[in-house]
Amino acid sequence: MSSSSTPKKRPKSKHNSSSSLSTSKSSLNSIIEPPQSLFPSKGEFLRLIAVLAIAFSVALSCNFFATFFSSTSKPFCDSNLGSTDSLSDSCEPCPSNGECFQGKLECIHGYRRHGKLCIEDRDINETAKKLLKWLEVCLCEAYAQVLCYGTGTAWVREPDIWNDLDGHELMQSVGPDNATYMYTKRRVMEAIIKLLETRTNSHGIREFKCPDSLAGYYKPFTCFIRQLISKHALIIAPVCTGLIGCAMLFWKVRQKRYLSARVEELYHQVCDMLEENALRSKSINGGGESWVVASWLRDHLLLPRERKDPQLWKKVEELVQEDSRVDRYPKLVKGESKVVWEWQVEVSLNSSRRRKKGEGFKLKPDQGINTNLNQSDHTLKAEPKALMF
């Protein structure tokens, strides 16, 4: 029993020692670590930042206003003072385009005050630009007329320009008695002197002219084309002549080919009609003459516009005359002497039609002309006796 009770007391002593050690550690940590109340909370930290921001903005505003009032409180140095006096700390130097007297600033005409500076008046500046553009257009268009057609005036006197400015509606809206009126005119004249060419005539009056480089933009389009042609005439004339010659040659070749194809087409139509007329006259039930008046064939086959060209039917007559199958001789018809054509070879109508179809594919005549001729051919076939005697 004594031996079993001894080991039970040992763990108890170990627990006591560990608890005493933890107590000593916690007491040591409490001495080393600062208390939690020493640091501000999150809400207190945000309020601190807000207070600092407000204080900084107030300080900055106070500094700005102090600087502004201290600077504006200084008077302007008089314009008639020397450069050394104007650089003193007791006064502000007078700005450009301004007049200072007894510490006050007055901007000259055409400028307005903006703080301690005199800036250009926008309305006056826009009016001067519009008047300058108007004078530029008037003078350059007049000089362009001189360059193109030799009419008008190249040089314009200064008094005439002043009178034109006085009559403009923009200047009338300003008022002739206003100081701004004179300043605007002076601005326009200064710009004109820089833009245009100037000279002094024999009477001592200054005159103005639009530069040639600027007048070129105001020339009419017709004038520009005419001058371009006259300037490059040595190149344009041969080129145009060559183009016209090529066009005429192409037209003549095309007309010759069309005439040749049309003559062959008419020749074959004449042969078919003569052959058909001959077969009809020799048939059992047929009747009438075997010949056909040549002038009737011409008026029947040719279109109205083709009858005005005598060369067309003349070439058809030449082909018919060279054909040994067609006999040509004069005959008295209704008391008038007519040249008649008669088919002399006896062939079948079917073979003639087959030949006509085969040659028609080779010729390939114009569609509109072929349609009219086919209609005329059907009319002649429907009324064969109208061409027979």
Give the topology, please.
Layout lengths: L1 H31 L9 H31 L10 H4 L11 E4 L2 E4 L3 E4 L2 E4 L1 H28 L6 E2 H10 L1 H6 L4 H17 L1 E4 L5 E4 L2 H4 L5 H11 L1 H50 L8 E3 H8 L8 H13 L3 E8 L2 E8 L5 H15 L3 H16 L7
Antiparallel strand pairs: 1-2, 3-4, 5-7, 6-7, 8-10, 9-10
Low-confidence spans: 1-17, 348-352, 356-389
**Tally of separate helices:** 14
Q: How are the strands of the largest sheet arranged?
A: 5-7-6
- Integer-rounded radius of gyration: 58 Å
Q: Termini distance?
A: 176 Å
**What portion of the residues fall into strands of 2 or more residues?**
5-15%
Order of helices and strands: HHHEEEEHEHHHEEHHHEHHEEHH
- Helix/sheet category: mainly alpha
The biggest beta sheet is recorded as:
3 strands, antiparallel
The coarse overall form would be elongated
Overall helicity: 55-70%
Overall average pLDDT: 75
Count the strands?
10
